[in-house]
Amino acid sequence: MPKTKNTKKKLSLSTLIFTALLLGALFGVGLHYLIPAGHIRDDIIIEGMLYVVGQGFIRLMQMLVVPLVFCSLVCGSMAIGDTKTLGKVGIKTVLFYLFTTAMAVTVALSVASLINPGLGVKVDNISTSEVSLSESKPLTEILLNIIPKNPIESLATADMLPIIVFALFVGIMLAKLGSKTSTVANFFSQFNDIMMEMTMVVMSVAPIGVFCLIARTFANIGFSAFVPMLKYMGAVILALAIQCFGVYQIFPVMSFAFTTATSNATIPLSIDTLHKKIGVSKKISSFTIPLGATVNMDGTSIMQGVAVIFIAQVYGISL
C-alpha cells in the first residue's frame, strides 16, 4: 500500500504567540479575581515564577540585540562591497524610512482625531508624579554624538547610532581590503550566523515568555485599570494595524514584533521573509533590516502621535 503523507500542519510561531497572549491574559485575570491575595499567589506565582520567566525572556532578547545588529550591519555592508552601491542603497533606505515614519505619524494623528481617545476620561483619580526633563542638546552635538569616541563603550552601553556608524565603517573596510582580511571577514560572517541562530532559538520560547509577561500584568491590575484606557489602546492598535497591513503588508514579522514588543528580535525573521516571499537578496536585507530595526521606529511614532492627542484631550488643551 502507498504511504500516506502526514498532512498535519505545524502551528506557526505567530499563532503560538497570540495563543499564549490570550491564555496569559485569561490566566492573569483568573489569578487576580479568583485567587485570594497571599504569599503563594503574590510572592511565589506572580512575583516569583511569572516575573522570573517573563523577565528572563526579555533579558535574553536584550542580550542578543547589540551583537546581532552589529554583526548584521558589518556583514551587510561588507556584502554590498562597493561604496558607491552602498551609498545608493543607503540613500534610498533612509528616504524610505523617512516616508514610512511620516506615514506612521499621519496615520496616528488621523486615527486619534477620528476616535478622540481622551474625551470623557476623568483625571480625578489619576495619580501624578514629578517628571524631570533633561536639557535638550543642540543639533550639532547630536550629530557629533553619532560618531563614537569609543566604539567599545558604545557597544557596552547599547548606544545604537554610534554602533551603526562603526559597523558600517568596519564592513566597508573589510570589503575594500578583500582577501587581505578574509580571516576577519569569515569571523564576522560565522559570528553573524551564530547570532541569527541564537535569536531563532530564543524566539522559539517566545510563547512561554509572552504568556508569563501578560499573565503577570493582568494578575497585578486586572481589568479595572484598562477600562479608562480602552479608547486610547484601541486607537493605537488600529493605527498599528493600518501601518502593518496597509503600508508594510508583512504579517508574520509584524505579529511577532507586536506580541514581544521588540523589533530587533524580528531581524532574522524579517531577512528570511524578504528573501523567500519578496525575493530581496540577503546582502541587501542584511544591511537595511538591522538599520531599520534601530532607526525606523514607526510603532513608537504611532504611540506618541496618539498619546499627544490623548493627553491634550484629557487636560482640555487645544492643539
Layout of strands and helices, then pairs:
Blueprint: H1 13-34, H2 39-80, H3 83-115, H4 139-145, H5 151-157, H6 160-177, H7 182-204, H8 206-221, H9 230-248, H10 251-260, H11 267-278, H12 282-295, H13 298-314
Structural account:
The chain has 13 helices and no strands. With 319 residues, it is an all-alpha fold. Helix 2 crosses helix 8 and helix 3 runs antiparallel to helix 9.
Helix content: over 70%
Number of strands: 0
Strand content: under 5%
Order of helices and strands: HHHHHHHHHHHHH
List keywords for this structure.
single chain
Give a brief outline of the structure.
About 75% of the residues lie in helices and about 0% in strands.
